[in-house]
Automatic annotation (TrEMBL):
GO terms for biological process: phosphatidylethanolamine biosynthetic process. It is a peripheral membrane protein. This is Phosphatidylserine decarboxylase proenzyme. GO terms for cellular component: plasma membrane. It comes from Pontixanthobacter gangjinensis.
Amino acid sequence: MAGDLLDNQGRGEAGWQWPSIHPEGRKFGAIAGALAAVFFLFGVGIIGWPLAGLTAGILAFFRDPERVVPQDDRAIISPADGQVSMITQVDPPAELIGEDGTGAPGLIPGQVTRISIFMSVFDVHINRAPISGSVRRLVYIPGRFLNADLDKASDENERQHILIERSDGLLIGFTQIAGLVARRIIPFVKPGDMVASGQRVGLIRFGSRVDVYLPAGTSAKVMLGQRTIAGETVLAELGEQKLLEGVSQ
């Protein structure tokens, strides 16, 4: 299915398939699986069974399913699976504003809409590019490991800012934030790389959050509490500002 073109008129072929396991998780799964096998071999099932369950959990955490990415220049795609935990007006991080010393532009100062997506340990943790373009910045900042659902986690937790510039000059910044359990943010890209919308750009191990900063004049197309799917859910359409209301049921 990878690379296939599908549309809303029924073109293409789709079918369920087992998601692959990202290489970053295979080593952890192999270690847990080997330990489980050793305890089973010596007849210590009371330890072997929990380790077997841990192995399954690790492999599930690092699952990397294929996604059908909308091909629309107006669309800003969700970089993360999870729940929309906050939608608020904020100033973008200082690391994403203005020039960075190389002459490359950054985000313009001033308040914009920030969409925060919280990822639990049950969500897919592969993060994807919200637009196509060139990676202009990748800034890692060490920090604390507060609950990623807290607003102050954006400023105090370990995090990594990414800025992507589209060919027409549009800039989108987003931030990977470590949480209580997360202990490592792993990038798949570096400054200068070209990425496609929905392309895998990194992962955060074991529970975390992603903040997306929308361009001025653009509001969220998702609602507070809504579930998002990385590479598929449209977070916003450029230049569109519209009130959306939902009912929890």
